[in-house]
Amino acid sequence: MTKNFFIILFALLILSFKNGITNDSLVSVDGLTLYMQHDVFGEGGRRLSLEFSETKQFKTSYSLVFQYKITNDTITIRLLDKVDTEKNKKIKVTYGMPGSSLKTPRGRLALPDNLLSGKDYYFMIETANFKVESKLTIDNDKIVLDIPENKYFSCKKNIVYPIPKNLVFGSVIFYGDKDNECGVKFFKEFEAIGMTNVQVPNYPYNHLSVNDNGKPENQYSPNGQNNIRFLYKMDTSFRKAARLTKKWYRKKLNIDYHIYSSNGDQALLDKFNGIVTTYADKK
């Protein structure tokens, strides 16, 4: 009996080390609050961004270090460390007193879209002193986190709406007549290269705002600066759209162009930035 017990215990230890994390390597917190949003720009591409913050504040400034693992229908997020924000080393936490300058420890990570499929996941939060199992549902148009009643883990916004793929949107900015003839010609050429007018639900997307008709609204200013906003479905490459926009910008018609794609591309062409392009495919 004793021999079998030690064999099982040894096997469990080996399995823990294979996974790279043991319970002994976790750290404790009084509680965590999550803020989540869907992002497309910057490192990581299309992703579900998660920011955790401690429910208590401290004199010490430090960051929370998390690690995630996705296995079949389970997403496990573990709190591994607390690191000095300025010195990048482990620290001893100092509690603040009432009236002192207190800081909220935070930690971030991101779950790439390409690792998440449209289904329900067990969403596990683990620290040294608690473990909470929630349900994360990935639908076609939204992501929902359903947290059971507990005293350790909560979420400020439990529903997020990922912006649909293959959209191109942005602004054409110019001064003068709001029926600017050059702007009209630009949109005609834009549509000719493979851009199709489209409407989307007026969900609270992170990067795009639309009205009840599913279109972005133009802005006209008394000082003569007009902001014509557009939204298209992209049936071509963003690079092709950027090349066309550069051609128009170089005509020096005193028009600025800010163009984005929901895949993570950007093209900023204006008097302040000059010409700045960022492509999601990085080729």
Task: Give an overview in words.
With 283 residues, the chain is mainly beta. It contains 3 helices and 17 strands. The strands form 3 sheets. Strands 11, 12, 13, 14, 15, 16 and 17 form a 7-stranded antiparallel sheet that branches. A hairpin with a 4-residue loop joins strand 6 (120-126) and strand 7 (131-138). Residues 1-22 have low confidence and may be disordered.
In brief:
Helix content is 15%, strand content 39%.
Oligomer: single chain
Quick check: average pLDDT? 85
As for the number of domains, it is 2
Shape, per Cα inertia axes:
elongated
* SSE sequence, one letter per element: HEEEEEEEEEEEHEEEHEEE
- Biggest β-sheet strands, sense, barrel: 7 strands, antiparallel
Number of helices: 3
Fraction of residues in β-strands: 35-45%
What would you report as the Rg, rounded to the nearest angstrom? 24 Å
Proportion in helices: 10-25%
Distance between the termini: 61 Å
The secondary-structure class comes to: mainly beta
Kindly state the number of beta strands.
17
- The stretches of 5 or more residues where confidence is low (pLDDT under 50) are 1-22
Keywords:
single chain; about 280 residues; mainly beta; 2 domains; seven-stranded antiparallel sheet; six-stranded mixed sheet; 17 strands; about 15% helix; elongated; disordered N terminus
